[in-house]
Amino acid sequence: MSTNPTRVFVARLLGLDVFDPLGDRLGRLRDVVVLSRGTRGAPHVVGIVVEVPGKKRVFVPMTRITSIDQTQVICTGLVNLRRFEQRGAETLVVAEMFDRRVTLTDGSGDATIEDIAMDQHRSGDWFVSKLFVRRGHSLAPLSRLRRNETMIIDWADAHQGAKTEPQAATQFVANHEDLKPADFAEALQEMSDKRRFEVASELQDERLADVLQELPEDDQVEILSALDVQRAADVLEEMDPDDAADLLGELPSAQAEELLQLMEPEGAEDVRRLLEYDEDTAGGLMTPVPVILPPEATVAEALAHVRREELSPALASSIFIARPPLETPTGRFLGVVHIQQLLRFPPFESLGNLVDKNLEPLSDLAHISEVARTLATYNLNSLPVVNQAGRLVGAVTVDDVLDHLLPDDWRANDGEAPVRKLGGRIG
């Protein structure tokens, strides 16, 4: 391994690209794994956690790393692409040590870890050497450091008991605010139940709703049931109505009804209508709030609606045209305008002139197999759903269908764990 530099700070490595010797990118560095040596000295750095394509995190041992600096990491040999699982005395530097509070051995007070340095010894092994800390309150009246001052200290200058405070949930949420909901949900699944509830409780209602929608049903139920009942109702209001209905359907009927009573009447009404359908029907799969406009609306108005950030790509792909009222169930359903059509016509064109009259809507009682066949036959991302009176009651999207056709545990299924050859030989 390269011996230059012999010291690196972990925070400066986060997000760096990890390459093989030929320049092919393996992924990005997301954390560093250290192994406690108890009273024998500073922790031994045993490897790094790399996020590979597909947002999966894998372990790369330090023995496979040939170069590491503040611009890139280069590794060699074989890397097991099985999802990283923490073992025994292993500690994740970023996830578990950053923001820990430690007590300084000189008796001057507490400090919070903000960064950690690791040094390479002559043997080639890496060890934690320094802590970059921010002072808390001072116990010594004449301490040379004031509150919020920072300093670099030796590992041995801070008490590192076996049960030091874990990273605060608030800090974990702040450090991962840019993660997509599906990736945040994946991180939650790797936590203990206690830790998962702590982190979930720190999320804003809208963020928690987005994350819950990406979790397996059992985890959704556990987290929602652990929340204060009013907050649970608030989170359900932020969820897509179809996802909220699916979650409530997993709860005891008394608990589900209590939550529905606490929700805003309009949102609760949408969810109640969905709960009336069998889960394998178009009505059970659909969302009751697609983009709905009258035929007099223009292309410009339609484009403004589909630009809304909260819309999924599948829902934004189609505009459903109906007579007022425009809330589901609508007035008479007229048809669909596809987003590609909007891009081919001038802004002032009326949507009524662009309706796809060849696309038949689905009955709300249609079985999921019919829904899937229709989506596949016409290469569509979404389909209109109408009731017996011909009123639009919602739309089914391709991701709704996939969620129901895939196995219940598909989010946790990693499949095989291939080994990737990165060049060079295993020594």
Automatic annotation (TrEMBL):
Q: Identify the InterPro entries for this entry.
A: CBS_dom, CBS_dom_sf, Mg_transptr_MgtE_intracell_dom, MgtE_N_sf, MgtE_transporter, PRC-brl_dom, PRC_barrel-like_sf, SH3_actinomycetes
Family annotation (Pfam families): CBS (PF00571), MgtE_N (PF03448), PRC (PF05239), SH3_actinomycetes (PF26205)
Q: Does the keyword Nuclease apply?
A: no
Task: Give the matching SUPFAM superfamilies.
Answer: CBS-domain pair, MgtE N-terminal domain-like, PRC-barrel domain
An annotated GO cellular component: membrane
* Protein name per the record: CBS domain-containing protein
The UniProt keyword set, sorted, is: CBS domain
Q: Does the keyword Amino-acid biosynthesis apply?
A: no
Q: Where are the transmembrane segments?
A: none
Q: Name one GO molecular function term.
A: magnesium ion transmembrane transporter activity
The protein's superkingdom reads Bacteria
Q: Kindly list any coiled-coil regions of this protein.
A: none
Domain (CBS) ranges: 355-413
